[in-house]
């Protein structure tokens, strides 16, 4: 494990201590491999990758987009499912309008 991945993993463990291993590994891969997160702090990379993963894997966001909803509308309709998933993983941080893809 690279030092950066270890730092992101530590931040993710604080953010979502109950996240299943499969999802944790996917979030870590996303945080580490995303060019847009390469220079972000480990905490920011963990949060942004976590919310992106939950949005695309654990909500209807992609289906809504496929059905013609714009990004903001799809996010609005997925917010509850995302919040529920994050809460079930022990995440106390809440979504807001600045959570990015």
What does this entry look like structurally?
The protein has 101 residues and is mainly α. It has one domain. Helix content is 65%, strand content 0%. It contains 5 helices and no strands. It is globular. The C terminus is likely disordered.
Offer a few descriptive terms:
5 helices; 65% helix; globular; 101 residues; disordered C terminus; mainly alpha
* Proportion of residues in extended strands: under 5%
Helical content band = 55-70%
Structural classification: mainly alpha
N-C termini distance: 25 Å
* Count of individual beta strands: 0
Count of runs of 4 or more consecutive helical residues? 5
Major sheet characteristics: none
Given as residue ranges, the uncertain stretches (5+ residues, pLDDT < 50) are 97-101
Q: Mean pLDDT score, rounded?
A: 95
C-alpha-based Rg, rounded: 13 Å
Q: Which term fits the overall shape?
A: globular
Kindly give the count of domains. Answer: 1
SSE pattern, N- to C-terminal: HHHHH
């Amino acid at each position: 494990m690279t030092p950066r991945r270890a730092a992101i993993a530590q931040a993710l463990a604080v953010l979502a201590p109950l996240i299943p291993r499969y999802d944790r590994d996917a979030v870590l891969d996303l945080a580490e491999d995303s060019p847009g997160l390469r220079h972000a702090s480990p905490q920011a990379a963990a949060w942004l990758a976590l919310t992106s993963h939950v949005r695309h894997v654990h909500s209807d966001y992609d289906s809504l987009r496929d059905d013609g909803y714009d990004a903001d509308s799809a996010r609005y309709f997925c917010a509850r499912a995302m919040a529920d998933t994050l809460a079930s993983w022990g995440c106390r941080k809440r979504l807001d309008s600045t959570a990015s893809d």
